[in-house]
Amino acid sequence: MDKAESRRTSSNDSDTVTYDSRQAKQRASVKWLLSKAYNNRVPETVKEPFYRDHEDQEHLKPQLVHSLANAELYCQALSNIYSDPNYHNLNNWGVLQVLARKGIYINDAHLTETVLIQTNPIKLGAHVSVMEALMALYAKEVATPDRVLAAVQRFSQSHQRPLPADHEQALLLWVNEANLALRERIQQEAKSQG
């Protein structure tokens, strides 16, 4: 990440707060990948995946740069998501093929294996695209419509609902029903107190 990256600045009287949404997205994506790759037991050495250099620029730690370039972190994440050690020996192209076979496509024309193996400088934007695809795969595998519907039925008094079409619809159903249930609970508590 260099100084040329776009930054939005908002100023409050004497404070100037700089917020870089791309940097925040990169940080969150890398931390999510680390949590999946290490099964929520991220080593202390990489819990904070970025460091600041003498010019106060933030960089991804070298061991993580290499683990992304050789697809090690992606393979570990896939192995943990599916509890299958057969994913450990993939290269970046193999990871992209697995994602495509699972119905997750990355619509980035500039994403190639050559870009993903580049380490100096690392093309973190390309890697974030792969991380987002892994997040979509994880959501698709974890938030299956039947699981979400079963969870909704545990806290919602609503009538039987049809099975959502996909994981996105299932998650929207869960959010909506959770909000309705919370609203009903707050209203009941307000009635009992007043």
From TrEMBL:
It comes from the Eukaryota. One of its GO terms (cellular component) is microtubule minus-end. Pfam families: CH_CAMSAP2_N. Residues 16-141 form the CASAMP N-terminal domain. GO terms for molecular function: calmodulin binding; microtubule minus-end binding. Residues 11-21 have a biased composition (Polar residues). Coiled coil: none annotated. GO terms for biological process: cytoplasmic microtubule organization; negative regulation of microtubule depolymerization. Residues 1-24 are annotated as: Disordered. Residues 1-10 have a biased composition (Basic and acidic residues). This is CASAMP N-terminal domain-containing protein. It comes from Homalodisca liturata. The lineage of its organism: Eukaryota, Metazoa, Ecdysozoa, Arthropoda, Hexapoda.
